[in-house]
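Something for you to look into today, if you have time. Just paste the record in under my message, thanks.
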Amino acid sequence: MLYIREAIVVEGRYDKNTLSQLVDTIIIETEGFGIFKNKEKVALLRRLAKQRGLIILTDSDGAGFLIRNHLRGSIDLALLKQAYIPDRYGKESRKRQPGKEGKLGVEGMPPQVLEQALRQAGATFLGKEEDVLKKGKLTKGDLYALGLTGGEHAVQKRKALQHRLDLPEHMTTNGLLEVLNSFYTVEELQKIMEEFP
């Protein structure tokens, strides 16, 4: 497992699944062209870029470059790193047919190609897990203890917390946990929750 300081933005969940087998960092999906209308997610990406830096890793087809250029126009360029995968023709094993341009996307790239793309982009590789997790890492158990999962009013509390922290409304619990771990310690989150009525 490679530990990287920067957050990485990819197009979709299959890209995220492939990359998460190689690197340990927060990985955010654009949900394809959904990023064009999702101001909350762009705001989250700006925050992540300021906090830890952001690497854009989209497919090498036209759609990937549209998404990449949209993000370049929305986030301070000094906080962005660009990772590019090579043009390789073929189809991902889960698909019946190749994509429109016939190129493999991030999900179809071997791990060594993805690692090379991240290194060429200037990703900050860290030595050990402890370097990445300087803060105490939040767990699902912490979310449960804070009443954010599993309880009668957990959904409302989670939505209120997301609103208070300016996080996207439609995040999954796992997505929320991942983002909270980028910004807060257990103690900091407890203090925030104490301020709720």
